Amino acid sequence: MLLRLAYLAVTNVFAALRLLPLGDRDKDVEILALRHQITVLERQLGADTRVRFAPEDRALLTALLSSLPREVLCRLRLLVRPDTVLRWRRDLLKQRHARTCRPKRPGRPPTVRSIRLLVLRLVRENPSWGYRRMHGELAILGIKVAPSTVWEILKQEGIDPSPDRMSVTWADFLRPQADALLACDFIETITLNGQRQYVLAVIEHASRRIRVLGTTAHPTAAWVTQAIRNLVMDLEEAGWRAS
Predict the structure, then answer these.
(1) Distance between CA atoms of 161 and 134, rounded to whole angstroms?
(2) 125 vs 206, which has greater pLDDT?
(3) For 21, how many CA atoms within 13 A lie in the half-sphere containing its CB?
(4) What is the mean pLDDT of the chain?
(5) Is 119 exposed, middle or buried (CB count within 10 Å of its CB: 0-12, 13-18, 19+)?
(6) Looking at the DSSP assignment, which residues form a beta bridge with residue 214?
(7) How is the beta sheet containing 210-216 ordered, strand by strand?
(8) Each residue of 185-209: pLDDT tens digit?
(9) pTM for this one?
(10) DSSP assignment, residue 102?
(11) Closest by Cα among 136, 139, 133, 137 to 161
(12) Sheet strands (E) in the chain
């Protein structure tokens, strides 16, 4: 296309030089003759036949006609409509813009090395975490990466991006959380006089210490809420964190 476009440009330059010595009358006569020839060609082709232009022909016509305003284009005798010429010009500008804005290195940019090292450190310290969990932890730290990026890093290192979470036992889950876990339940008992009582007890997983919060014959939601609230205040005064 470029060779053909260069050939057309050179031939049209010589054609323009040939027109320089001609007078205005001679040019007007030639224009009228060319317009009549176009009319004859259109009549022979018919209304349903479309004239097809090669890409280099489009580029040359666009270069010649783009400087003219739309009103002048509408008065010219052309094989195409003025809107078609303007569309060709827009397409050429889009192609030029696409070439200039094309990145030097196509594809997604490489991941920062520090992020890669952090992901590998997280998976070493937490082997049961999947790539989704690690993506969430990175988001908490303010590091914005896609889940697919974490998946790709683990896959390149030969690590399963989504390990089997069923392999984590209940004991493995409780061990890092034991210092802050409390379990509560009611113990049903009957007094000597035959009255049924409900004892609210709490056990600390770390020390196995049992705390009795109170007893009642009618354990309502308000009574349980107040008992738990009193326990939390006592633990906060002792500097103990519960979850």
Answers:
(1) 10
(2) 125
(3) 2
(4) 76
(5) buried
(6) 200
(7) 182-190, 196-204, 210-216
(8) 898 988 888 889 999 998 887 778 8
(9) 0.32
(10) -
(11) 133
(12) 182-190, 196-204, 210-216
